[in-house]
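seq:
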Amino acid sequence: MPKTKTLTLDLSRVIAAPPVEAYDAWMDPARPCNPWNHCKKLILSPKVDGLFFILGRHGNGVPHFGRFTALARGRGLKHTWMSPVTRGLETEVTVRFKKQGLGTLMTLRHSGLPDDELGRTHQAGWTFLMGLLEKQFRSKR
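struct:
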């Protein structure tokens, strides 16, 4: 069986908040600026080896699921990410929060995505969510 060609997305934003505040907002499912909020159904266990399941809001909903592999409040997190959109590949998401001036440089790397139209749709999704996080703190300062 031929190996699937994969791609890696690297995105960044400057968030007008300290790293701990940006991290906490990203991890809080009650806040509309992270992947845990935009869903019909959510199961979330934010601890190392904890699982998550997201059923998207649009249409019949797209299921996403994974496992947290690292969590460091104010510094970053890693988790796996699988869905029909990844064509069943277990991909990896790494989010880092680093102090930059008075704010935080947030970087997100999503690796192991299929290098096709579906895999590339993750760029728009992550860009949207990171933009919501940036906007949430921009409007508060």
